[in-house]
Amino acid sequence: MIRKFAMVLALTLLAGAAIHAQQAQQPANSQQPPNSQQPPNSQQPASQESPEAESTSRRKARPHDYRTWTFNVGVGANLASGTTKTFVRGGGVDGTAAVTRNYSKYFGFRLDFLWANLPLRASALQAAQAPTGSDYVYGFGLDPVFSIPVTKRYTAYALVGPSFYRRTGHLDSSTVVPGSPCTPFWLWWGTCFAGSVPLNRNFLSTNQNEFGLNFGGGVARKVSERFEIYGEVRYLHAKHNNTTTDLRPLTIGIRW
Predict the structure, then answer these.
(1) For residue 85, what is the enclosing H or E element?
(2) I want to staple 171 with a disulfide (CB 3.0 to 4.6 A). Which of 35, 130, 184, 218 is the partner?
(3) Residue 19 domain flag
């Protein structure tokens, strides 16, 4: 009996030793569950970005190839045309200033201010029977501007749009008889009343508000990263109560 018990105990110890040895030979990571995952705080390397994020970053980083706002000032001379040419000689001084809101390097809107001297011809002073006189025009325009980059230095542009003008003039004196029939000069001067020169002598001064259209174009040359010089020619036409004002300003200036 004792002999049988000893044999059973020996067999049990040998089986346990064999099972322990087999478990010791397995890899340490075999104890992890087969569906184990990386910790939730694991992240992809910083250098690996999604294509969408990389494309968005590139678009934000790319700078504009144009300035959003540009400004310009210029001076020059104007050439009268139309009926204005009959009473105004060419060569009067003009000055301009403008601000442009650019939406691309090809298109923008420009707000213009214009002042121009309209020197009266000697024949106009004779028709007014006045020794001396002066005439000026002030104007505002809002114009779409279309630009064409020709080279890295040169840009051509064209503009067209509505405008408002105020023409003002003054005669120092006049020997014309009040109540006389209006001549073509007085009609253009804009002081006729019912076809006659006013009796109250208000015809010596004139102030006329006129709406019209202007168009033209120019060429700009870059002289530095910020500044350009430009040359421009435009045609202005305005009308009110059959009274017209027509000019062709020629301007040279600086744009930045």
Answers:
(1) helix 84-87
(2) 130
(3) no
* Residue appearing with tokens 């408002």: 164
**Does 128 reside within a domain?**
yes
- Beta carbons within 8 Å of 247's beta carbon, 6+ residues apart: 78, 79, 80, 81, 84, 94, 116, 118, 137, 235, 236
Alpha-carbon gap, residue 190 to 195, rounded angstroms:
11
CATH code for the domain in which residue 229 is found: 2.40.160.20
- b/e 14-47 (16+ beta carbons within 10 angstroms → b): eeeeeeeeeeeeeeeeeeeeeeeeeeeeeeeeee
Pairing relation of β-strands 205-222 and 228-240? antiparallel
- The distance in angstroms from the start CA to the end CA of the chain is 116
Kindly state whether residue 119 falls inside one of the protein's structural domains: yes
If we measure between CA atoms, which residue out of 213, 207, 206 comes closest to residue 237?
213
Q: What is the pLDDT of residue 49?
A: 53
Segment-wise mean pLDDT, segments of 10 residues, the chain, 256 residues: 45 48 49 48 50 55 78 97 94 97 96 97 96 96 96 96 97 93 94 89 91 97 95 96 93 97
Amino acid making up residue 22: Q
pLDDT tens digits, residue range 185-232? Answer: 999 999 998 899 998 878 999 999 999 999 999 999 999 999 999 999
Q: Which residues pair with 100 in a beta bridge?
A: 70, 110
Say what the pLDDT of residue 245 is: 96
In which domain, by residue range, is 151 found?
69-255
Q: Is residue 108 part of a domain?
A: yes
How many helices and strands in the chain, by DSSP H and E?
A: 5, 8
**Number of structural domains in the chain:** 1
